[in-house]
Amino acid sequence: MREPVITPSTIADPKTKYGNAKSSTRHFFTQRLTGAINILFTAFLIYIVISIAGEGREGVVSLLGNPVIGIVFAILFAIVCVHMRIGMREIIEDYVHEQRTNRLSLSLNSFFAIAVGVVGVLSVLKLVFWG
């Protein structure tokens, strides 16, 4: 089956259904919001990296074991994974054109982002609550 040819005039014509407007708008705002939050958390992340530089395991566990720092770090980890998933989704949608490969790539992207997020957040929470 041949895919339709997409030209700039096809995209500009409001009568053609090219993409999902609600989904695209949500992804756009979510990407910008998580990017802004990541910028705000950068100072916190720099503080963590400087604080644990040269420390042994005990120093890292004591710093990340602090509930305030650990919870904020876990939230940062989750937000970074959401941002990563949406960014990679945009790249896949732009450069992978075959429908079957596109769906597989998008599924693997979601799985990878969720897996990294869950492992990261659970690791930080384990340090916070169980040392």
TrEMBL record:
One of its GO terms (cellular component) is membrane. Keywords: Electron transport, Heme, Iron, Membrane, Metal-binding, Transmembrane, Transmembrane helix, Transport, Tricarboxylic acid cycle. The lineage of its organism: Bacteria, Pseudomonadati, Pseudomonadota, Alphaproteobacteria, Hyphomicrobiales. This is Succinate dehydrogenase hydrophobic membrane anchor subunit. The keyword Membrane applies. It is found in: Membrane. The chain crosses the membrane at residues 33-54, 60-83, 104-129. Membrane-anchoring subunit of succinate dehydrogenase (SDH). It holds the Pfam family Sdh_cyt. Part of an enzyme complex containing four subunits: a flavoprotein, an iron-sulfur protein, plus two membrane-anchoring proteins, SdhC and SdhD. One of its GO terms (biological process) is tricarboxylic acid cycle. It is a multi-pass membrane protein. Its cofactor is heme. Pathway: Carbohydrate metabolism; tricarboxylic acid cycle. One of its GO terms (molecular function) is heme binding. InterPro entries: SQR/QFR_C/D, Succ_DH_anchor, SuccDH_FuR_B_TM-su. It comes from Devosia pacifica.
